[in-house]
Amino acid sequence: MAQDYNAQIAPSSKPTHRRVLKIALPMVLSNATVPILGAVDTGVIGQLGDAALIGAVGIGAVILAAVYWVFGFLRMGTTGLVSQAYGANDQLEVSVLLTRALLIALAGGLAIIILQAPLIWLAFEMAPASQRVEEFAQSYISIRVYSAPFAIALYGLTGWLIALERSKAVLVLQIVINGTNVVLDFWFVLGLGWGVEGVAFATVTAEIFGFFLALYLCRDAFKGPNWKNWPRVFDKERLLYMLKLNANITVRSVLLLAVMISFAFLGARQGDDILAANHILMQFIEITAFALDGFAFSAEVIVGQAIGAKARDHLRQGVVLSFIWAGIASLILASAFLFFGPHIVAIMASAQDVRASAAAYLPWMALAPIVGVGAWIMDGVFIGATRSADMRNMMILSTLIYLVAVLILLPLYGNHGLWGALLISYGARGLSLLSRYPSLERSL
To answer: What is the three-state SS of the chain?
Structure first.
């Protein structure tokens, strides 16, 4: 899995159904393990029969995801830049980009550890939950935060592997990380009785182990001297370009997570049962997002390499093929959620009130794959093209549309209105990015 990247698929390879699936399917399986882990976290803590514990793990995970995903540009920016460098046959830049990503991850992770207290305080000041939920959530966060440098570095390492079409390596990485986490969940929570703290310790251990495994999978990048070509690593022009790209992606990511956080906290204001029900259903949304992201990754790689090689026909073919397969996947997911959703909810929560609340809002969750497919695939297209300004601007627009929808629908329909506003934001993001695609083609 760590073969020389010169031996990978040639940048000029024509996009085909087979190539899209070769990139996407391992990524679909890889990404699906992430929300499955979230479902296991929820299911294990749910066996304790306390809705506040479920809510605490949910809120704590959302807060940390928000903080970490501020550095999500490391995954997205690394994939776009590396795939373009590979398409242009710039092997020095391919290696140097990984070094830059790891240095950024180290600095960002240490900053989060140092600033953890004000970050936790700010999160609950902005959107408070019940006292018990906040107390348990703080215990969870105070443990998990110490794996921040490793968790953030995994974004860059994963992005580098994806750009070189090493989907199978990413699949192995995620299976090992999440498998370790699941085993430790059961041991720490149900075996040793550590409760919320056990879920947190399981995740910390798995993330640190995963970091070292990812370094091993990327080991060929460190065999030659390219990775420590410090004049190139700190090249002013390239750093400024990367800074501009990452700044735009960060704005986009912060707004996207603001939507998800507001959804969680607006649900929390409606009571612990609805908070717990929404958190359970969001595990299905995450399964959708990560599954469709597998096809978005194929778009990222093919688009990035096509732009690096200046091949417009390959760009268009890659986008069309990624859309076709993502559309098929979205219909399969929606159907599965409608038929099997109630049974999965019953497994994940033992409290009857939580089950009843989740069942009431299940149809909204089932619509998410169909409404959101455009948003996920167009994100992949613009990440591969490193058109971060368009991503930023369209995210600003779709966030404003979401806020208007919340202000109108939440007072009228309660939690149903909140779910409706979330789906409206998905549709707005996809359509707005699609409107910018012709400009992307013309730029080639």
So the answer is: CCCCHHHCCCCCCCCCHHHHHHHHHHHHHHHHHHHHHHHHHHHHHHCCCCHHHHHHHHHHHHHHHHHHHCCCHHHHHHHHHHHHHHHCCCHHHHHHHHHHHHHHHHHHHHHHHHCHHHHHHHHHHHCCCCHHHHHHHHHHHHHHHHHHHHHHHHHHHHHHHHHCCCHHHHHHHHHHHHHHHHHHHHHHHHHCCCCHHHHHHHHHHHHHHHHHHHHHHCHHHHCCCHHHCHHHHCCHHHHHHHHHHHHHHHHHHHHHHHHHHHHHHHHHCCCHHHHHHHHHHHHHHHHHHHHHHHHHHHHHHHHHHHHHCCCHHHHHHHHHHHHHHHHHHHHHHHHHHHHHHHHHHHHHCCCHHHHHHHHHHHHHHHHHHHHHHHHHHHHHHHHHCCCHHHHHHHHHHHHHHHHHHHHHHHHHHCHHHHHHHHHHHHHHHHHHHHCCHHHHHHHC
